[in-house]
Amino acid sequence: MLHYSVVFLVIALIAAVFGFGGIAAGAVEIAKILFFIFAIMAVISFVVSLMKRK
After folding, report:
1. Which residues are within 8 A (CB) of 37 and not within 5 positions of it... i.e. 6 or more apart?
2. Could you give the CA distance from residue 38 to residue 28 in angstroms, rounded to a whole number?
3. Of 10, 13, 19, 43, which sits 20 to 30 A from 2 (CA to CA)?
4. How many domains does the chain contain in total?
5. pTM score, two decimals?
């Protein structure tokens, strides 16, 4: 999922360089959402792995 976040960020940067503001804004929003979903899932995975050790 982090991979997709980076891909959309690169798409947004390329679109911004060529002046496609709407496409760049959309790609940035998708990248942000995917990054936060990844971060939440990583924290949940970390907590669950700590619970299994005890």
Report:
1. 1
2. 15
3. 19
4. 1
5. 0.65
